[in-house]
């Protein structure tokens, strides 16, 4: 089993690296050198500031969700846990990072998984909703300007189908709460009940639902602006709505991780979408790669810092049982 996991990770890393290599090869070494030597670092600083705001909003949103389960932490710890989780999602092609967030709180404050994991799942649910809100807003402009390929609509259909399935699963869980209460395993039962309570509280409470949706939408708007500011740093020009649209479509490819952090897949999708708006393959490739590098490097620096200062072992997280 362990060997299969290692092979799976190795193949995912290889695939991501191969896709990224193809994209950078298309840009060309001479063009990369040209773009980097002419980079406007003021726009890079603005993009970093925007991404910092992005991550702070994520930390505030998760902190807001945790309060409903009686978990009270500071924004700093929420920020650290979030970046730790995202760091592991970049390194490992699976959503182990989502568990790592809860592990951080368990390791530091002894909070049980049943009190923190439901908010992680809920956070992901609102993340997807937020992507679609920004996609809808930017799409109103984009779809009037550009004819999209069939695969794009297939991707949107898959995403919508995922949301519909998630909605029905949520409805089923809320209506059959008594079945969960009858489970014999107390820890799993408590975990599921906490999840159901978190879902009920966020969906039935209109103020809370709108608040979380606004948080999520602002987060993804920041992501779109990061792409736009990086484009400006490269000397390019594009409507910010088009940049946000391309970023959201590329983000959807990371819902089901094929490569660590969506590396290669994210860039490839962005190149295809950006080329529809008139960007050259070289500029689109450079923009997608540099944007993803900035986001991932930012996350990795903070995530590694958290790992070192907290003494958390990644292998320990992988072996954790979330019913504790």
Automatic annotation (TrEMBL):
Its EC number is 2.3.2.3. GO terms for cellular component: plasma membrane. Pfam families: LPG_synthase_TM (PF03706). It comes from the Bacteria. The chain crosses the membrane at residues 7-24, 39-57, 125-143, 155-174, 209-231, 293-314. The keyword Lipid metabolism applies. It is an enzyme of class 2 (transferase). GO terms for molecular function: phosphatidylglycerol lysyltransferase activity. Belongs to the LPG synthase family. This is Phosphatidylglycerol lysyltransferase. The lineage of its organism: Bacteria, Bacillati, Bacillota, Clostridia, Eubacteriales. The gene is mprF.
């Amino acid at each position: 089993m362990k060997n299969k996991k290692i092979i799976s990770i190795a193949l995912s890393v290889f695939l991501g690296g191969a896709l990224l290599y193809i994209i950078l090869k298309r840009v060309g070494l001479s063009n990369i050198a040209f773009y980097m030597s002419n980079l406007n670092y003021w726009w890079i600083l603005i993009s970093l500031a925007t991404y910092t705001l992005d991550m702070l909003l994520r930390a505030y949103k998760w902190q807001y969700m945790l309060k409903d389960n009686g978990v009270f932490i500071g924004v700093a710890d929420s920020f650290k846990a979030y970046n730790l989780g995202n760091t592991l999602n970049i390194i490992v092609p699976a959503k182990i990072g989502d568990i790592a967030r809860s592990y951080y709180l368990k390791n530091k404050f002894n909070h049980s998984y049943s009190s923190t994991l439901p908010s992680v799942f809920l956070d992901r649910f609102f993340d997807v909703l937020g992507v679609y809100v920004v996609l809808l807003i930017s799409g109103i402009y984009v779809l009037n300007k550009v004819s999209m390929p069939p695969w794009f609509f297939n991707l949107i259909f898959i995403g919508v189908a995922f949301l519909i399935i998630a909605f029905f699963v949520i409805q089923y869980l809320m209506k059959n709460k008594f079945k969960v209460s009858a489970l014999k395993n107390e820890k799993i039962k408590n975990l599921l009940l906490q999840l159901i309570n978190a879902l009920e509280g966020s969906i039935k409470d209109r103020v809370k639902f709108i608040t979380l949706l606004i948080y999520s939408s602002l987060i993804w708007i920041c992501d779109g602006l990061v792409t736009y500011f990086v484009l400006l740093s490269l000397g390019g020009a594009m409507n910010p709505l088009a940049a946000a649209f391309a970023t959201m479509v590329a983000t959807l490819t990371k819902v089901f991780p094929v490569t660590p952090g969506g590396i290669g897949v994210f860039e490839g999708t962005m190149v295809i979408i950006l080329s529809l708006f008139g960007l050259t393959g070289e500029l689109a490739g450079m923009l997608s790669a540099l944007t993803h590098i900035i986001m991932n490097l930012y996350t990795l620096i903070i995530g590694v810092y958290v790992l070192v200062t907290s003494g958390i072992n990644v292998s320990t997280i992988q072996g954790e049982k979330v019913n504790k």
